[in-house]
Design brief:
Layout lengths: L5 H5 L7 H14 L4 H9 L4 H14 L5 H7 L5 H13 L6 H10 L3 H14 L5 H7 L5 H11 L7 H11 L3 H14 L6 H12 L1
């Protein structure tokens, strides 16, 4: 009976309301019906970016190894939302083979929101291969990227980050980030060199 409802349910995987779409994904995933794969692939290759995001969202519920290369390839999609959804889905699936791609995104993606998501995921994965790139991101030109990098590095609990945090602290212009960086140094239990803290104290004294 449930399999007979397959095509009726498939009609909702492109529905505009996310709650309804996801109910459809869950129901179809539970059916474990191989007819779903080509349907998702049609969406994944759509000219419309929004339909590609629907396909990526559905892949989590599909739980099919054939989707992994497609998700990793989507990390290079021209549309930033597609890249963001691909990162999020790979994170939920705990696919660590995507880590080199996340590192590349931190280093070169054109969209800072996508870069921040990759930074957050790498912090959750705590991959040593991403450690250097996360430390470099502490001095990024975008303050939100800097904030995300420090927050992610705290998951590593590695004093080696203190050098990079303290160096950024010397030049940091955002008050909330200065506080975050000082707290991070205290949490990691090392100063990374006292120059950053010293510089802040001198500036405060001159006010």
């Amino acid at each position: 009976k449930l399999r007979g409802l397959f095509y009726d349910t498939v009609a909702f995987i492109g529905y505009p309301l996310i709650d309804i779409r996801r109910k459809a994904y869950e129901a179809l995933g539970a059916l474990d019906d191989d007819r779903l794969f080509p349907v998702i692939m049609t969406l994944a290759t759509s000219q419309r970016a929004v339909e590609r995001t629907y396909a990526i969202d559905a892949m989590y519920f599909l739980n099919d190894e054939r989707t992994i290369p497609i998700l990793i390839n989507a990390l290079k999609d021209d549309n930033k939302s597609v890249r963001y959804y691909a990162i999020r889905t790979l994170e939920k699936m705990k696919r660590t083979e995507a880590i080199p791609n996340f590192v590349r995104i931190i280093q070169s993606d054109a969209d800072d929101e996508v870069r921040i998501k990759a930074i957050q995921v790498l912090g959750n994965f705590q991959s040593r291969s991403a450690f250097h790139s996360l430390n470099k991101a502490i001095s990024d030109k975008n303050p939100e990227v800097r904030q995300a990098a420090v927050a992610s590095l705290l998951f590593y609990d590695d004093k080696a980050s203190c050098y990079y945090i303290a160096r950024q602290l010397e030049d940091e212009t955002e008050g909330n980030l200065k506080l975050q960086q000082i707290k991070a140094l205290l949490a990691l239990g090392a100063t990374g060199g006292i120059q950053g803290l010293k510089k802040i104290m001198e500036k405060e004294k001159d006010k």
